[in-house]
Amino acid sequence: MDKKTIRDVDLTDQRVLVRVDFNVPLDDGTVTDDNRIRAAVPTIRAILDEKPRAVILMSHLGRPKGERKPELSLKPVAPVLQDLLGEEVHFVEDTIGDQAKQAIEELPRGGVLLLENTRFYPGEKKNDPDFSAQLAELGDIFVNDAFGSSHRAHASVVGVADHMAAVGGLLMEKEIEFLNNALADPGRPYVAILGGAKISDKIGVIERLLETADLILIGGGMANTFFAAQDIPVAESLVEEDAVDTAKQLMEQGLDKLVLPTDAVIADAFEADANSRTIDVMDGGVPDGWRILDIGEATIALFNEKLQGAQTVAWNGPMGVFELEPFAKGTFAVAQTCAELAQAGATVVIGGGDSASAVREAGLSDKVTHVSTGGGASLELMEGKELPGLAALNDK
Q: Quick check: is 360 catalytic?
């Protein structure tokens, strides 16, 4: 990474203002998935080892739309982080101003403080200069370790860096190493796997991959739009009508690189207990009243065959509605193949979001090379874009 990190600066006696990504799921005030919190712990520990005056953590949570919403408070995160960190974590019910400043003053030397949700303020998403300046008043040096938020030019990600020295954390460094460096000069063959619901979110990524990858395997709901582009009936399946022409163009561009499903698991309702069966997609398409919810056995075998021998694999997006157990087989089969390839020496990068969740659910997170903490951010890097949060950091 050509940006400075916490390894390049002296943090002793500094108030270190750290942007983390604690945008975690809550159920009635309880954190239900602590993976993003765990991901931030190595950076926080590394900062504490440098004997700072204080570590001040800021993050967004959910979409409160610039208003204070108690159900989206970061308060439930503090005890979870405290358990993981093995250090007391203080919490203040404000993000800027006198209350936040006082909480920092009252911290014991080397104390850790979590600020309230940055998105309780409209200035956060607007990257408002005044809000950025007020955040900057809380620290002496800024550390961005929120890779998953760094594709957004918000005040706590970008604006605050205008007012103080700004460096990356260890998680940011790790993400960039795998998603930028490994995919910029991949070992060959390089196979990309794209799934999820929408093709529109990934048009730029597909165009980029047509230049950089050797093969692109397409699954999930986005495959339906490619079927529609070939005039294959998909009945009740999710299709982005506005993207059908784009899908046609992409197929013409990537005739020898795009690999689409040959069969699909269809259901007569979007429910776990729906009637389901497997069809050959090319044999008349999907019958009326049914919808595609997963790739079928023949496609699993086809994708497995195409992945064999790959030296680099990048995967973003599930192969079906894996949240419903009957339609999870395709996604978990791809996860298993990815894990086997990584264990055999390939570089396998999972691009955050639902594919990261699927790999975790399959118990294979530690069997692949890297599982990204940011779905949208990883997609933008795969597309070749520069992340605003990364651009804002000081150059080495």
A: no
The CATH fold assigned to 186-382 is: Rossmann fold (3.40.50)
- Asked if residues 52 and 13 have their Cβ atoms less than 8 Å apart, the reply is yes
* Residue 86 designated active-site: no
Three state DSSP letters for 43-107: HHHHHHHCCCCEEEEECCCCCCCCCCCHHHCCCCHHHHHHHHHCCCEEECCCCCCHHHHHHHHCC
Is 101 a known active-site residue? no
- Which listed residue (353, 374, 375, 389) is catalytic? 353
Indicate if 186-382 has the same CATH topology as 6-172. Answer: yes
Which residue of the set 36, 174, 329, 367 is catalytic?
36
Please report, in tens digits, the pLDDT of each residue of the chain (396 residues total). Answer: 899 999 999 999 999 999 999 999 999 999 998 989 999 999 999 999 999 999 999 999 999 999 999 999 999 999 999 999 999 999 999 999 999 999 999 999 999 999 999 999 999 999 999 999 999 999 999 999 999 999 999 999 999 999 999 999 999 999 998 888 777 889 999 999 999 888 888 888 999 999 999 999 999 999 999 999 999 999 999 999 999 999 999 999 887 899 999 999 999 999 999 999 999 999 999 999 999 999 999 999 999 999 999 999 999 999 999 999 999 999 999 999 999 999 999 999 998 788 898 999 999 999 999 999 888 888 888 888 889 999 999 999
Is residue 291 within 8 A of residue 270, CB to CB? The reply is yes
Sketch the domain layout of the chain as residue ranges: 6-172, 186-382
The topology (CATH level 3) of 6-172 is Rossmann fold (3.40.50)
Q: 62, 376, 384, 385: which is the annotated catalytic residue?
A: 376
Tell me if residue 159 is catalytic: no
Residue of 45, 198, 248, 385 marked catalytic: 198
